[in-house]
């Protein structure tokens, strides 16, 4: 199978202190695949995702999407930020936030665009809230708006930066299942950054674990559970628990190694 | 204490209004019985003078003259302040270029520009407009660029991933995000513009409320002088109220979102 997204020898050094956030990052993502990127805080996983999105420049290496190098944001990939209170503009209603994703990109009439946005709001379960302001919605609902806005662009690749980490546990579970459903229905490719191992194992087909800084790839493992996954059953399968234990051990080692290095 | 009275004291501004009434009453009584002097006329005499000047159109003429030059200077300050502030806030190069200059000019009190302006612009209408413009510019300028500079990077990243051009980013993100702070600057400058308008009129003018008040004092029409000051108080109050009303509508999202988080 051909590689859809190719990350080749990526390195990011911070200009201020010259220290590398990560180096020698090489992996690829197949079309339609769901990959989770996980690692201890400070390993640069979020920076890595920003570079993949074209929002930041690497100091070495390259990212290729569908054969061409990424040098800026592209319309076939959409980004979902952790800080939904910022990413969703508080001065716009829900529908206007979603419209912002398409109104400058499409020559279609305002009515048909609004219809398109409304369809996507229904897809994320917000069909009844188009004229609400973000401050009238819960955190989970606000992040749904961000997902709807991303999907209205009909992206092929969804880059998600800890999208659910600011939500409470109940909401997170709900949105994980919603995301898996959308992924299956729409044939998306997803790269999902999280610091939560359980979340990574539950949603992804493959988990890539970065080591503590400077980050390198510590693990790149398939998660062999069939979809649709179930919150209780999947998380209590013996194979799941075994994989979780192994990765968890590795993660603790990474964190400890990271601690030892910091003066 | 009576709980009902307590609620009124806490919830209603009625007590503040009553205090004003009481102060006016004290004024009235003191002018009648305590200091019977032409410099301290009774409140009723002032209201009489006020009424006369309203009826014969004198106050309206002077009020309009003040409003006109104030709005001209203020309007120009709004346009220049917001345009320059947006550019300085967005483009780092422009910020680095102009910010030290702004910091140097900003502490100069508005009236200090007056002698310079008289030399360059003369003593006419233009001088007063420019004086108002210069003094009201800085609060708007400062608030605009600091509003733009405090926009979260995530919001700019969002605009980039959505493929917005610079112009679209200004329209959809920069201006609305900075609008609460821009409006704060505009409100501060509104008060400043009235002060400078009245000051300019007191220095050299033949119309406007500042001129009216000073002329009344010089011609010993003391009740007229107080009537002019009352007019200024009322005028300033109405302007601020109107501004708050419009501001509340424009940035309701801001008050609501910051109230909850």
Weakly predicted, low-confidence segments of chain B:
none
Radius of gyration of chain B: 23 Å
What is the string of SSEs of chain B from the N terminus onward?
Answer: HHHHHHHHHHHH
Domains counted in the coordinates of chain B: how many? 2
Most extensive chain interface and residues per partner: A-B, 27 and 24 residues
Number of strands of chain B: 0
- What is the strand content of chain B? under 5%
Number of helices of chain A: 9
Report on this structure.
- The complex is a heterodimer of chains A (263) and B (261).
- In chain A, α4 crosses α5.
- Chain A contains 9 helices and 10 strands.
- Chain A has a domain at 1-27 and 41-50 and 57-72.
- Chain A is globular and about 55 Å long.
- In chain A, β9 (206-210) and β10 form a beta hairpin.
- Chain A is of the alpha/beta class and 263 residues long.
- Chain B is an all-alpha fold and 261 residues long.
- Chain B has 2 domains: 1-36; 41-260, MetI-like fold (Orthogonal Bundle).
- Helices cover 84% and strands 0% of the residues of chain B.
- Chain B has 12 helices and no strands.
- The mean pLDDT of chain B is 94.
- Chains A and B meet through α2 of A and α8, α9 and α12 of B.
């Amino acid at each position: 199978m051909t590689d859809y997204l190719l990350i080749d020898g990526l390195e990011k050094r911070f200009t201020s202190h010259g220290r590398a956030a990560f180096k020698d990052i090489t992996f690829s993502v197949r079309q339609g695949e769901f990959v989770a990127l996980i690692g201890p805080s400070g390993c640069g996983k979020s920076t890595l995702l920003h570079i993949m999105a074209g929002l930041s420049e690497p100091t070495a290496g390259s990212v290729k999407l569908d054969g061409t190098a990424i040098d800026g944001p592209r319309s076939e990939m959409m980004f979902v930020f952790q800080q939904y209170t910022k990413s969703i503009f508080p001065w716009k209603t829900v529908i206007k936030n979603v419209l912002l994703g398409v109104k400058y990109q499409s020559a279609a009439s305002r009515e048909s665009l609004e219809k398109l946005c409304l369809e996507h709001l229904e897809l994320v379960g917000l069909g009844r809230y188009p004229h609400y302001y973000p401050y009238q919605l819960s955190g989970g609902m606000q992040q749904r708006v961000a997902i709807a806005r991303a999907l209205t662009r009909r992206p092929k690749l969804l880059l998600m930066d800890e999208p659910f980490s600011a939500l409470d546990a109940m909401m997170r579970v709900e949105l994980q299942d919603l995301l898996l459903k959308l992924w299956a229905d729409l044939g998306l490719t997803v790269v999902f950054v999280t610091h939560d191992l359980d979340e990574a194992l539950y949603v992804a087909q493959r988990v890539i674990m970065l080591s503590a800084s400077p980050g390198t790839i510590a693990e790149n493992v398939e998660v062999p559970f069939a979809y649709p996954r179930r919150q209780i059953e999947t998380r209590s399968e013996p194979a799941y628990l075994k994989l979780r234990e192994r990765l968890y051990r590795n993660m603790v080692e990474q964190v400890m190694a990271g601690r030892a290095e910091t003066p | 204490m009576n709980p009902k009275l307590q609620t009124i004291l806490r919830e209603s501004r009625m007590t503040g209004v009553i205090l004003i009434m009481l102060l006016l009453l004290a004024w009235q009584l003191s002018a009648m019985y305590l200091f019977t002097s032409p410099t301290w006329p009774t409140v009723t005499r002032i209201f009489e003078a006020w009424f006369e000047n309203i009826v014969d159109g004198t106050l309206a003429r002077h009020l309009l003259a003040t409003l006109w030059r104030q709005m001209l200077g203020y309007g120009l300050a709004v346009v220049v302040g917001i345009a320059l502030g947006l550019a300085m806030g967005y483009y780092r190069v422009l910020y680095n270029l102009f910010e030290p200059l702004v910091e140097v000019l900003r502490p100069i009190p508005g009236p200090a520009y007056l002698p310079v302006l008289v030399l360059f612009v003369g003593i006419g209408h233009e001088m007063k407009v420019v004086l108002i413009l210069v003094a009201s510019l800085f609060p708007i300028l400062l608030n605009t660029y600091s509003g733009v500079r405090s926009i979260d990077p995530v919001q700019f990243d969002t605009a980039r991933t959505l493929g917005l051009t610079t112009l679209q980013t200004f329209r959809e993100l920069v201006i609305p995000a900075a609008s609460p702070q821009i409006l704060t600057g505009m409100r501060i400058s509104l008060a400043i513009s009235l002060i400078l308008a009245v000051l300019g009129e007191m220095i050299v003018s033949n119309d406007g409320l500042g001129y009216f008040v000073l002329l009344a004092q010089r011609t010993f029409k003391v009740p007229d002088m107080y009537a002019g000051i009352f007019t200024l108080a009322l005028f300033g109050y109405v302007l601020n109220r109107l501004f708050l009303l419009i501001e509340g509508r424009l940035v309701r999202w801001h008050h609501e979102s910051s109230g909850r988080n």
